[in-house]
Amino acid sequence: QVRLVESGGGLVQPGGSLRLSCAASGSIFSRSIMYWFRQAPGKQRGTVAFISVGGNRNYVDSVKGRFTISRDNAKNMVYLQMDNLKPEDTAVYYCYMVSIDGRQSYWGQGTQVTVSS
Length: 117
What we know:
By secondary structure, the protein is mainly beta. It is about 0% helix and about 50% strand.
């Protein structure tokens, strides 16, 4: 059984930083692509960033240069470093895992990020 648990959300002023963490249980982490999604009130959930098994990173245009995704396969952890935060980054952030064979996928419960002065 795989479980994803996010942490690190909170309230931050514009221009500030937060680091989100996602802890994964189970044995498939090193064979999975890891994503961060976000969902703002009244909007659809969308991809923020993802990182491949080999460490290749991709970002949505709106966060390029401000957010950094990373993973630690030894610890079953994925991180999202968020710098220069803007009010439009306010959302619930979700960790998502997809095994490379596509047969298994899991969501975390989400963590709230609020950017406001």
